[in-house]
Amino acid sequence: MLYPDCPVIIRTVEVGGLTKSQLIHKLQQYSILMNDYGERLLADDKFTTSDTKYSLQTVELTVGDLGFPHGATTAQIFKKASELGFELCPLELGPHLRLGYLDQPEGYLGNPLLRHQAPSDSITIASEILTEDDDFPKGFYLRRINDLLWLRGYRADHLHVWNPNDHFIFCKQNRR
């Protein structure tokens, strides 16, 4: 099924109101783990936080639900989402969504880890890409593995093809 007739998960997420160091401290308080890419994203000067709290409505759906039964590149996914009225999320949504989604289902459950592909049951947050440098992380994804919550950064070049069952989160166009 294709959007809008497919299953989607809509969330309202409170974003902003914390400095970068307060956000990092809160992630540590909740024992949220990060990989090197996630830490690099958070530490970068281009990662900014809003002084003011605001609400975002997000929609989670798969690459296949966007009309790509054989997968698609990041650019194709972002273009199609824009045509459907979705926006890219601010980068700071990643840590705030992780803090608000503590009951994410377990991800591994016998599914093999695949190199150069999104892990099963992970959710990639569609956000503005800070740099075209292929060695720099492109954004965040959320996952739970062995009962541990992760906020991870990922790298993907412009040729990377996402699988049809990969989950993405976009923002509905009602920001601020």
From TrEMBL:
| UniProt superkingdom | Bacteria
Q: A GO molecular-function term, please?
A: helicase activity
Identify the keywords attached in UniProt to this record, alphabetized.
ATP-binding, Helicase, Hydrolase, Nucleotide-binding
Write down what this protein is called: Helicase
Q: Which organism is it from?
A: Peribacillus muralis
